[in-house]
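Researcher: Let's try something more involved. This one mixes different molecule types, so please make sure each is placed in the same coordinate frame as the others.
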Amino acid sequence: NAGVTQTPKFQVLKTGQSMTLQCAQDMNHEYMSWYRQDPGMGLRLIHYSVGAGITDQGEVPNGYNVSRSTTEDFPLRLLSAAPSQTSVYFCASRPDRNQPQHFGDGTRLSIL
Amino acid sequence: QQQVKQSPQSLIVQKGGISIINCAYENTAFDYFPWYQQFPGKGPALLIAIRPDVSEKKEGRFTISFNKSAKQFSLHIMDSQPGDSATYFCAAKGYPPSGGYNKLIFGAGTRLAVHP
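Model: All components are placed in one shared frame. Result:
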């Protein structure tokens, strides 16, 4: 039982490049979320999903896209990377809205 | 708009001492208040949580104190140990006044260092 797995762990991009951050969970959780963590700002919600085929925007969605074609996977796409998107990205999942979040170990992304 | 305010930003405590981290919230619709512990290179992990129908919850050396009228809650770590050195986040969850998803709102975090 791996929990929430995020890949890659580290990535460096150039401004304007695109990439996909992968997130997979093996706990059959319906709810999945993406957060970014910046110094002094805690974790901020980017996008979330309450089940396969259903996604919605969080607090800071601009510049990011998501899709949820399966229960297990919830990839986050950066369309055209900007230096302001340099951050640590965390994926989380939970069985339902009343249960606590399980977080992955994060992807550290630097955009030059 | 910072809906959950956390203080202090950093905290140094001697081994065996008490660590206290405070949070204040604005939205009275919040109904779940967790604390997360995060070690370097890892994701946050749920430490302890409380609902507003109780004023205190204790799990081992960790205690949450909750003051509903003041809209404040705090984490107390008794007999602090070097292994407790980590970043701690408070959070709050509930349906926003405008409706929608009952998302988790995080505080800015407190970096705790426990010196031996």
